[in-house]
From TrEMBL:
Residues 208-228 are annotated as: Disordered. It comes from Mycolicibacterium hassiacum (strain DSM 44199 / CIP 105218 / JCM 12690 / 3849). Pfam families: DUF3027 (PF11228). The lineage of its organism: Bacteria, Bacillati, Actinomycetota, Actinomycetes, Mycobacteriales. It comes from the Bacteria. This is DUF3027 domain-containing protein.
Length: 242
């Protein structure tokens, strides 16, 4: 009785949305002993691949089924919107633009209150000398996370540029170490022809290292200038037929 209620299900859709929105019958499935779902192709602008799902129900011993629910559901080929992601999880590095405001999370693990020791000697020493510190400073987790990103990033030791040379930034004249604990592994490149202004790993390297030797030779060989204006043109006389 439940599986045979095809026309009952179709009439429910027609009453709900109109006859022109109902397409071919797609079949039915039993939900349990008291309910079944009938599916029809939905014909509506913007809902290509969607289906009408009509749930019919009947209690044990009933002599007819009744309509329980009429809904539209996506079919296997339906175009669906991407899964919703909260805005704070959608932001990625590089998304911040001029005029944008981005506050840290309330319990951001990268930050700790400035009155607590941050664990970075350079920061803690300055705070003690002045008598107060910044409202928030990097936590050990924040420093560790930044160090890992920089180490694994474009200017780390495993970057293609670094793997193509044997020289490293640590002993380069253009390498400016960071202060504090991060200075043990990182610095800023001051070579305008390389990673200028970027934080680089001490084990990063490039072909513009300060110790890169000059190429052999002195360039193009030197020749005396050639001036064809001083040439004297003469005509060849007859030599006869010797």
């Amino acid at each position: 009785m439940l599986l045979g209620a095809v026309e009952l299900a179709r009439s429910a859709i027609v009453e709900f949305s109109g006859e022109e929105t109902v397409g071919e019958y797609l079949g039915a499935t039993l939900e349990d002993s008291t309910a079944a779902t009938h599916r029809f192709l939905a014909i509506m602008p913007g809902y290509r691949g969607w289906q009408w799902a009509v749930v019919v129900a009947a209690s044990p011993g009933a002599d007819h089924a009744t309509i329980s629910e009429v809904v539209m559901v996506p079919g296997p080929t339906a175009l669906l919107a991407p899964k919703w992601v909260p805005w704070q999880d959608r932001i990625r590095p590089g998304d911040l633009g001029p005029g944008d405001l981005l506050a840290p999370a309330v319990d951001d693990p990268r930050l700790v209150p400035g009155y607590l020791a941050s664990g970075d000697p350079a920061v803690d020493e300055v705070a003690r000398e002045v008598g107060f510190g910044r409202r928030q400073v990097l936590s050990p987790y924040g420093r560790s996370a930044a160090a890992q990103r920089w180490h694994d990033g474009e200017y780390g030791p495993n970057a293609p540029m670094a793997r193509a040379t044997k020289r490293v930034c640590r002993d380069c004249g253009f390498y400016v170490p960071l202060s504090g604990s991060l200075g043990l592994m990182f610095g800023v490149c001051a070579n305008e022809y390389s990673a200028d202004g970027h934080v680089v790993d001490a084990e990063y390297g490039c072909g513009a290292h300060s110790d890169t030797p000059q190429p052999p030779g002195s360039g193009s060989p030197l020749f005396d200038p050639y001036d064809d204006g001083v040439l004297e043109l003469t005509e060849l006389g007859d030599r006869g037929a010797d």
